[in-house]
Amino acid sequence: GAGVSQTPSNKVTEKGKYVELRCDPISGHTALYWYRQSLGQGPEFLIYFQGTGAADDSGLPNDRFFAVRPEGSVSTLKIQRTERGDSAVYLCASSLQGPSTDTQYFGPGTRLTVL
Amino acid sequence: QKEVEQNSGPLSVPEGAIASLNCTYSDRGSQSFFWYRQYSGKSPELIMFIYSNGDKEDGRFTAQLNKASQYVSLLIRDSQPSDSATYLCAVFEGGFKTIFGAGTRLFVKA
Q: pLDDT tens digit string along A87-106?
């Protein structure tokens, strides 16, 4: 079946602009995760959704970052007033139920570049 | 600060050898431990997970967990050039958060 998809694959924006990154999880997966990965680093947890609700958003760096999953499927990560330090690959993952023993399936990522 | 530590490498092994990748973690309450492989420019993909002390084998891969020492390792037997990648250790600490290490780059020489 189809895997996790993310759009756009690349996004170049200017400092101060607003961006939205979209994630389409595997059908039937109730758990959805957003991570951010910088060069030479592992994925950094941002937020975890169980269904429609954000069960843990403790990884969001500040209030410029916000994510939604209104119908329990597609999720959008929103970044306001982008800064050069936001440049990274944003990864979305989904799993059947939750993070304790489930396999997290990662999407291809969105490479965000803030000029 | 809860941490997952890995040697960044690169770890270089000849084809057919055993590659040994190591990871330590700081939170004694950690429950589950995962090894992901990430090829350059690609997304992480799960190799295996372990949550009980001891060894867990899956094909050429063996994960080893020692909770007393807060140590988890991955052994790759009969290493192949196609195993050349970055290996990420990830730890589920309870709650909902999975913490990833920075990864170890493995290079298998043909």
A: 999 999 999 988 887 899 99
